[in-house]
Write a structure and sequence with these properties.
The chain is globular. It contains 17 helices and 19 strands. With 448 residues, the chain is of the alpha+beta class. The chain has two domains: 222 residues, Nucleotidyltransferase, domain 5 (2-Layer Sandwich), CATH 3.30.420; 175 residues, 2-Layer Sandwich (Nucleotidyltransferase, domain 5). It has a seven-stranded mixed β-sheet with strand order 15-16-14-13-17-18-19, with helices on both faces. Strands 3-2-1-6 form a four-stranded mixed β-sheet, sandwiched between helices. A two-stranded antiparallel sheet has the order 4-5.
Length: 448
C-alpha cells in the first residue's frame, strides 16, 4: 500500500466534520481536524433552511487546516441524503436549501397516492418517507424551479462549490425516490409526475471519479451519501453474515445485497434499496435515532450526553417502549412531549427513566428491523456491526446484544469518515480493492 493521507468531509445534519485519515498506518485512525455544530435556521416565512454559507465556511476552514498540517492526496465529500440546493445559469445558489424537517412536505401522501405506492416502490425501491426528495420537489414552488439550472444534492452542491463540477453521485441519488433502482438513471416518469423539468437533474456519476481540484488538491467522488460511506467503514468480516447498524441522528439498519429487492414483502415492510458506493445495494431501513435524545436535552437545559447515559444506566427493571420509527419524531417542536405521550409517561417523569426509555426504544426499533431483514432475505445475521455516535455508548451495544441475541462488534464512531477515505484510497491506488481496504479496517472492531 502506498502512502496516502486524505481529507474526508462529512456533512452531518447536526455537525460538519473535516477529518484526516492516513491510509498507510497499520491501524485505522481518524483525526478530526475541525467540527462545527449547526442546525436548521428559520427564515422570514417560518421555513427551516440550512445555513449553507456557514457550512461552506467551516468546511473550507477544516480543509485549510488539513493542507497546512501535512501532504494531502485527495479530498472526498459525503453528507446526508434527500436535501438539495438549486443553482442558476451563473452557477450561483438561488437561496438557502430547505431542511428535510421543514413542514412543507406535510401533504406528501397526496403525491404518493396520486403516483401510486406500488408504482413508486417498483421503480425506486425506496422506503416511503415524507422527507424523500421526490416529495420535497413536489412541494417546491414554480418560481424557484423556473430560476434553477441544476438541482444538486447537498454533497454534490459542496463539490460544485469546491470544483465547479455538476453531477450527482449514485449512492445519494438513490435516496431521492427519483432514481430507477435497476438502471441507476433518473426515473423520467416520476420526474414528469411531479411536474419538474427533467433538464434540471444532472448526470449520474460513480464514486472513485476525480471531478476537479481545490487548492491544487484532487477532489474525488466517494459514497456521497453518508450511510453509503458508513457501510464501507465497518470492521467487516468475510464469510460472516452481518447486519450494519449505523447510529447518529438517524439509525440505519441494513445489509449488503447484490441486487435491489422490490418485492411486495420488501415494500410491505418499507425497506429501501440504496446504491452501494462500490456497487451492490444497501438494503436498509431508517429508524429515528439519537435526534430524539438530542431534542429532549433542550428541555433539560442541555446536560451532557455522558451524564444522561450515566443516569439511564442506573435504571433497573423494564421501561416503557415506543415506536422510534414513527414519523411524529421527525419534525416535532416539543420532543419531550412526543416521547412521554408515546411512552405513556407523565411529562414530568424522572429524567433517567425517560432517557432509558428513549435508548431502549431505539434499540427495540433496531432489533425489529433486524428481524424483518431475516424475514425478507431468508438469512438471519450472525453479528451486528455497530458504528457511528452510538458506538461510543456501551449501553447501546449491551442492549443490542441482549435483545437481538447477536454478537455485536463495535466499530468506529467515525465510520463514515473511514468509508469516505477508503474510496479515495482505492481511487489513488493505496488499496487494490475494497477487500484489501476492509481487511485494513477489520482490527478496529471489538465485541460489545
Amino acid at each position: 500500500m502506498t502512502a496516502a493521507r486524505v481529507l474526508a468531509v462529512d456533512l452531518g445534519a447536526s455537525s460538519v466534520r473535516v477529518a484526516a485519515v492516513d491510509l498507510a498506518t497499520p491501524h485505522p485512525e481518524v483525526e478530526v481536524l475541525h467540527r462545527w455544530r449547526h442546525a436548521p435556521v428559520t427564515d422570514s416565512g417560518g421555513s427551516l433552511r440550512w445555513d449553507w454559507p456557514g457550512i461552506v465556511e467551516h468546511v473550507e476552514l477544516g480543509l485549510e487546516m488539513g493542507l497546512e498540517s501535512g501532504p494531502v492526496t485527495s479530498i472526498g465529500v459525503d453528507g446526508w441524503g434527500v436535501d438539495y440546493g438549486m443553482i442558476d445559469e451563473a452557477g450561483d445558489l438561488i437561496d438557502l436549501p430547505y431542511a428535510y424537517r421543514d413542514t412543507r412536505t406535510e401533504g406528501w401522501e397526496v403525491t404518493a397516492n396520486q403516483i401510486g405506492h406500488g408504482r413508486l416502490y417498483a421503480v425506486t425501491g425506496v422506503q416511503l418517507m415524507g422527507i424523500n426528495t421526490i416529495f420535497q420537489l413536489a412541494a417546491d414552488t414554480t418560481e424557484r424551479l423556473a430560476s434553477a439550472r441544476h438541482i444538486l444534492l447537498l454533497p454534490d452542491l459542496l463539490v460544485n462549490h469546491l470544483t465547479g463540477w455538476v453531477g450527482c453521485e449514485l449512492s445519494n441519488m438513490s435516496t431521492t425516490g427519483l432514481m430507477d433502482a435497476r438502471e441507476q438513471v433518473w426515473a423520467e416518469e416520476l420526474i414528469e409526475a411531479i411536474s419538474v423539468p427533467a433538464s434540471l437533474f444532472p448526470q449520474p456519476a460513480s464514486a472513485g471519479t476525480i471531478v476537479g481540484s481545490w487548492r491544487d488538491t484532487p477532489v474525488n467522488l466517494v459514497g456521497s451519501h453518508d450511510t453509503a460511506s458508513a457501510f464501507l467503514g465497518v470492521p467487516f468480516q468475510p464469510g460472516v453474515s452481518s447486519v450494519f447498524v449505523s447510529t447518529g441522528s438517524w439509525v440505519i439498519v441494513g445489509v449488503e445485497r447484490p441486487e435491489p429487492d422490490t418485492s411486495d414483502r420488501a415494500r410491505g415492510l418499507n425497506f429501501s434499496n440504496e446504491a452501494g458506493a462500490m456497487g451492490g445495494v444497501r438494503f436498509l431501513k431508517n429508524v429515528v435515532g439519537f435526534w430524539i435524545l438530542e431534542q429532549c436535552r433542550e428541555s433539560w437545559d442541555n446536560p451532557s450526553i455522558e451524564a444522561l447515559i450515566g443516569e439511564a444506566s442506573s435504571v433497573e427493571g423494564e421501561v416503557p417502549i415506543f415506536d422510534a420509527s414513527d414519523h411524529r419524531f421527525v419534525s416535532t417542536t416539543d420532543m419531550l412531549t412526543e416521547v412521554t405521550d408515546a411512552a405513556g409517561l407523565p411529562y414530568d417523569a424522572a429524567r433517567p427513566l425517560v432517557v432509558r426509555t428513549i435508548i431502549e426504544s431505539i434499540v427495540a426499533g433496531v432489533v425489529r428491523v433486524i428481524s424483518e431483514l431475516g424475514e425478507v432475505t431468508g438469512q438471519a445475521p450472525e453479528q451486528a456491526l455497530l458504528v457511528g455516535g452510538g458506538s461510543r455508548i456501551p449501553l447501546v451495544g449491551q442492549l443490542l446484544a441482549r435483545h437481538s441475541g447477536l454478537d455485536v462488534v463495535i466499530g468506529s464512531p467515525e465510520a463514515t469518515a473511514l468509508g469516505n477515505a477508503i474510496v479515495q484510497g482505492i481511487a489513488s491506488g493505496a488499496f487494490t480493492d475494497l477487500g484489501e481496504a476492509r481487511r485494513w479496517l477489520a482490527p478496529s472492531g471489538v465485541a460489545a
